[in-house]
Amino acid sequence: MKIWEKAPAKINLTLDVLGKRDDGYHEVEMIMTMVDLSDRILLEDLEDDQIILETNSGIIPNDERNLIYKAAHLLKSTYQIKKGVRVFLEKNIPVAAGLAGGSSDAAATLRGLNRLWNLHLTSNELMELGGKIGSDVPFCIVGGTALVKGRGEKVTPIVSPPPGWAILAKLPISVSTTDIYGALNWQDIKEHPNTDQMIIALKDHNFDGITKNLFNVLEEVTFRLYPSVKYLKEQIEGFGADGVLMSGSGPTVFALVNKESRLNRIYNGLRGFCKEVYVVRLLR
Ligand SMILES: C[C@@](CO)(OP(=O)(O)O)[C@H](O)COP(=O)(O)OP(=O)(O)OC[C@H]1O[C@@H](n2ccc(N)nc2=O)[C@H](O)[C@@H]1O
Ligand SMILES: Nc1ncnc2c1ncn2[C@@H]1O[C@H](COP(=O)(O)OP(=O)(O)O)[C@@H](O)[C@H]1O
C-alpha cells in the first residue's frame, strides 16, 4: 500500500518566552498557523524490517538524523512493529528557516504510518510521541491554528485567520534554533506580544487586529546576530505590507496580505534583493 501525506509549513503570529525550564528548554506561549507551502511524503510498505528514506533535497541527511527517520523509528520501537517502510520526501519548505519543515515532516510521518500500519492511535497519542522528536511536532500533528504553550506540547486549537496570503522571504542563511534560544536572556525581554488580543482578533476575523498584534520576542536576538534579517523586514514594511514578522527563530520573514492587488507589488519589490520568495495562502 502507498500513502501520500502533506506536511505544511507553519508561521508564528506571536512568539513569547516566559521563562527557562529546569530541562534547559524555554517556556513559550505562541500562536502558530499553517500556510500552503508543503513538503510531500510518500510512505510505502516494505517487506524488510527497515526504514529507507529518499529525498529530492540535496542538503538534508537521509539517515537516522532525519526527523522522518526518527518518527518512523520511534513508532516502531514504541509499539514493537516489525514492518518496514520506504519513504520518499519531496522537499519544498526551505530548511532551517523557522518554518518547522522538519517538524512537519515528522508529524506527517506519524500521521501517515498510523494509517499505513492501522495503529488507530489518537491525535493525543501521536502528539505525545511527536514531543519526543521536537518541540514543534505536537502542533504539526494537529495543524490549523493553535495557541501553543509549555515547551510546545500544550496545543489548544483556536480560530484560523480569515482568508488571505502570506508572502515568505528567506535570505540565503541558515539559523540554528539552538543558537537563537542560547543567545536569548529571557529576563531582559522588554516587550512581549499581547497574545490575548491576538486571540480576540482571530475570533473576530479582524485582519487589522491580527496584523497589529504580530510580535515575536526572538526577532531581537536574530536581528542582533543577523542584521540582514532586520533590514529585510524593514524593506518589506516599506513595500506597504499590512503586517510583517519573522517566523520562529528565523530567518524567514513573512508579510500578511488580504488584498490580491497588493501581492504583486510586494512580491516584485522583494524579488529585487531576495531570491527565495513564496506567495502562499493561509490555511484554515
Ligand atoms: C522557535 C520555534 C518556534 O515555533 O520554532 P523554529 O524557529 O525552530 O521553527 C520552536 O520553539 C522551536 O522548536 P523546534 O525547532 O522543534 O525545537 P527543538 O528541536 O525541540 O529544540 C531545539 C533547541 O531549541 C531550544 N528550545 C526549543 C524549544 C523551546 N521551547 N525552548 C528551547 O530552548 C533548545 O535549546 C533545544 O535544544
Ligand atoms: N525532514 C527534515 N527536513 C528538514 N530538516 C531536517 C529534516 N530532518 C532533519 N533536519 C535537520 O533539522 C534542522 C532544522 O530543520 P527545519 O525543521 O527545516 O528548521 P526550523 O526548525 O528552523 O524550521 C536542519 O539542520 C536539518 O538538517
From TrEMBL:
Q: Name one GO biological process term.
A: terpenoid biosynthetic process
Task: Report the active site residues.
Answer: 10, 136
* Gene Ontology molecular function, alphabetical: 4-(cytidine 5'-diphospho)-2-C-methyl-D-erythritol kinase activity; ATP binding
Xref: InterPro entries: GHMP_kinase_C_dom, GHMP_kinase_C_sf, GHMP_kinase_N_dom, IspE, Ribosomal_Su5_D2-typ_SF, Ribsml_uS5_D2-typ_fold_subgr
- State whether keyword Magnesium applies: no
Give the GHMP kinase C-terminal domain ranges.
Answer: 198-274
Enumerate the UniProt keywords alphabetically.
Answer: ATP-binding, Isoprene biosynthesis, Kinase, Nucleotide-binding, Transferase
Q: What class of enzyme is it?
A: transferase
According to UniProt, this protein's pathway is:
Isoprenoid biosynthesis; isopentenyl diphosphate biosynthesis via DXP pathway; isopentenyl diphosphate from 1-deoxy-D-xylulose 5-phosphate: step 3/6
Enzyme Commission no:
2.7.1.148
The family database entries (Pfam families) matched by this protein are listed as: GHMP_kinases_C (PF08544), GHMP_kinases_N (PF00288)
Q: Does the keyword ATP-binding apply?
A: yes
> What's the domain of life for this entry?
Bacteria
Q: Which amino acid positions bind ATP, per UniProt? A: 94-104
Q: Reaction catalysed?
A: 4-CDP-2-C-methyl-D-erythritol + ATP = 4-CDP-2-C-methyl-D-erythritol 2-phosphate + ADP + H(+)
Residue span, GHMP kinase N-terminal domain: 66-144
According to its UniProt record, which protein family does this protein belong to? Belongs to the GHMP kinase family. IspE subfamily.
Q: What does this protein do?
A: Catalyzes the phosphorylation of the position 2 hydroxy group of 4-diphosphocytidyl-2C-methyl-D-erythritol.
Q: How is this protein named in the record? A: 4-diphosphocytidyl-2-C-methyl-D-erythritol kinase
Species:
Tepidibacillus decaturensis
Give the lineage: Bacteria, Bacillati, Bacillota, Bacilli, Bacillales
Which gene produces this protein? ipk
